[in-house]
Design a protein that fits this description.
The structure is a single chain. Helix content is 7%, strand content 46%. The chain is mainly beta. It has one domain: Beta Barrel (Cyclophilin), CATH 2.40.100.20. Strands 1, 2, 3, 4, 5, 6, 7, 8, 9 and 10 form a ten-stranded antiparallel beta sheet that branches. A hairpin with a 2-residue loop joins strand 1 and strand 2. The longest helix is centred in the first third of the chain and has 9 residues. It is globular. The relative contact order is 0.33.
């Protein structure tokens, strides 16, 4: 499944794997939320709540689309977070890995805290 994430002039596509979380998220599309930032990560709440999946990870590659189950939020890391120990993003806790941003994930830096974010099918 492909989704589009839009906030102001920033518009990105993401390719998502077929997972229980992705299927639940797809049913909730489209939705809007207010962006938060944490280091080089943008995250925002979603209207869904899911459980941690067996392949959940805390350290991921930049541009990975993650679902933070503890906050019912999409987490979009594009670089180091405050708890990273190397160049890879380290999330606040283990997250479900859904897919990846298509293209340059560093464009996420253009989304500022408090900005409106829209997520829809691409």
């Amino acid at each position: 499944m492909k989704i589009r994430i839009t906030s102001g002039k920033v518009s990105l596509q993401a390719e998502l794997r077929d997972t229980p979380t992705t299927r639940t998220l797809e049913e909730a599309l489209p939705f809007e939320a207010s962006a938060q930032t944490w280091g080089d990560e943008v995250y925002f709440s979603t209207p869904v709540s899911v459980k941690l999946e067996p392949d959940a990870r805390q350290v991921v590659e930049p541009g990975t689309v993650c679902f933070w189950t503890e906050g019912d939020a999409l987490a979009l890391p594009f670089g180091r977070t405050p708890i990273s120990t190397d160049d890879k993003p380290k999330l606040a806790s283990r997250c479900n890995v859904l897919g990846h941003i298509v293209g340059d994930a560093k464009a996420l830096a253009g989304i500022k805290a408090g900005a409106k974010v829209r997520v829809e099918k691409a």
